[in-house]
Structure formats: structure tokens, C-alpha cells
Amino acid sequence: MAASSITCCASLLPEVMVRSFLGPIAASLLLAGCGEADAMREVVQGEINESASRGEVQGPVVDLTPAQLAERLERGDIRLIDVRTAKEVEKGMIPGAEHIALDAFAPAELDLSDGHEIVLYCRSGRRSSIAAERVAGHTGRPAAHLEGGILAWTDSDFAIEK
To answer: Are 146 and 128 in contact (CB under 8 A)?
Structure first.
């Protein structure tokens, strides 16, 4: 009976959350018993696959390489947010980015109505991963950030604007 309760509860959670907390093997075993959740699992797996094709999924955060970010910027379907301090931004930003310092970053206050994916970056990737976790927590979907931050961007010979 207890195992049945766990199985039913697992079917209510998005698979990405179950996998993040339990790991892939335990989550697969738990989710395998959710026969009634097969359709939902397919939808969630499709979202996971889409996220994975755009970057590496690490729980609720998708790590993008500089090349992947450049591709998305070229398509024009993202909202790029720099979460560094104002002093850091004075040294330059990735073209097309807007600035919202991490200490003022509130995902609930973002206008998400245009459907553009939010991508975050900072100096090295640490603060942007924190901001991405906040976005994912607010939206319930994985959020993307530039792994390695603007340092990786410039190391890959992509331009910044001052």
C-alpha cells in the first residue's frame, strides 16, 4: 500500500523534478509504476528533450555554451538578462542584453507575456545559475543561463558592447 501511495504521488510531480531529486535510476524505477501518467510523462519528456537539445540540463537549470547563446541571439527569440552589478556592466555587456542586478532580480516581476525564453548571464556563471534557479522555481520550467558567464563569451571571441 505504501509503495502505491509513493507511485501515485510521483505521477503528480514533473519528471524533471523527480529526476533532479532522486537521480535517473531511482526516478525511472519510481516513474515506471505510473501507468496512468504515461501521457503526461511523454509531454514532460518532450520538454526535457527540447531543453537538452538547446543545452545541458542540470536539474531546473540549462547550461548554454557561448555558441548556443549566439545561435539563440541570432534567432531573436530570447530575452537576455545580465545579472551582474552596475559596476561590472560598465565594462561591457553582451549585445542585446538588459541589466537587472541579481540583488534586484525578482522573477515574479518579469513580463513573460511575449513568450521569449529568458536566458541569464553574469561574470562567471555562478550568479546567473542562481537567477536561473529562481526563474525555474517561479515558472516551473527549466531556465537557461550562460555557463562560464561573460568570461566564457569573450574567451570564445564573441563581442561585447560598452
So the answer is: yes
- Main-chain phi, psi angles of 119, to 5 degrees: -125, 135
| pLDDT tens per residue, range 61-102 | 999 999 999 999 999 989 999 999 999 999 999 999 999 999
SS (H, E, C) the chain: CHHHHHHHHHHHCCHHHHHHHHCHHHHHHHHHCCHHHHHHHHHHHHHHHHHHHHCEEECCEEEECHHHHHHHHHHCCEEEEECCCHHHHCCCECCCCEECCHHHCCHHHCCCCCCCEEEEECCCCHHHHHHHHHHHHHHCCCEEEECCHHHHHHHCCCCCEC
Q: What is the pLDDT of residue 36?
A: 46
Give the cell for residue 97.
542584453
pLDDT on residue 19: 40
Say what the pLDDT of residue 21 is. Answer: 42
User: Cell numbers of 142, please?
Assistant: 527549466
